[in-house]
Amino acid sequence: MPHFEMTELPLLSRSALDRAEELRGDADALRAGWRDASVLRVNHRGQARIEGAELVLEPASGLGDEPLPGAVFLGRRDGRHLWAVRVTALTGELGDLRLIGHRLDDSSAGLLTTAVAVLNWHDSAGFSSIDGAPTTPTISGWSRHSTSTGHEEFPRTDPAVICLVHDGADRVLLARGPSWPERRFSVLAGFVEAGESLEACVAREIAEEVGLVVRDVRYLGSQPWPFPRSVMIGFSAVGDPDAPLTFADGEIVEAHWFGRDEVRAALAAGDWTSTSDARLLVPGSVSIARGMLEAWAK
User: Fold this and answer.
1) What single-letter DSSP state applies at residue 86?
2) How open is the CA angle 264-258-284, to the nearest 5 degrees?
3) How is the chain split into domains, by residue range?
4) Which of 66, 148, 164, 194 has the most CB atoms less than 10 A away?
5) CATH number attached to the domain at 11-124
6) Full-prediction pTM beyond 0.85?
7) How far is CA 218 from the centre of its chain?
């Protein structure tokens, strides 16, 4: 099976959130909607309160009579406005996208993904990248203005490629980073450099990380990955399983070609948290990597 396609959208790409972009700059509409709005509180670890499989949203009116400075307008759900705010402390049961993303419905997953991504950007955008002056949030959290020149900056997203390398038949190349426990493997990934196409990035990253030349690079799908503010762009590529693997840049400490049956067994066993003693454990469903492996292993 030299070519394959993903059969489902990645979990974090299934957002059903109405972003209501037309309201972001409408101060009067946002002020009026604040009375019945809900707020998602997110701490600096990207965690929010949960109850069972639900995010805990709180009445915005409890925070004041109008939108708070620094709050981010996320959109609408069931006609009500939704906002996110950064907080220093939370109580109760907490969860982040990596741990609870698979439990959330499409709307809640989109809500938390967007909140974490934009709040992470605000944390690092307090000074203008153009003139170094302090910046202030505008457009209900969707831009920041320089206090010196008025220059406007928008939430940054860093593109990264993630590629499933296979041999065109029944083997797939999976690798382990230096900080990962033994037996935990995934597909290869890396950030896109300035002036580089996505396809060129795939070829460069794989050559740098494992010393392998690949061909037949094909797009599979994409997924927001707000850790801290990326989008993962998925590809497949074909490589020679008889070619030597080299780990020159230090980002990979171990890589092996695994058979389709072995990948199927790992998928059936669960994810990286599995208690299986198999030599292969694979990522959980919140990552696009798992969807890529599931599509290839069919």
Assistant:
1) E
2) 50
3) 11-124, 129-156, 158-297
4) 164
5) 3.90.79
6) yes
7) 20
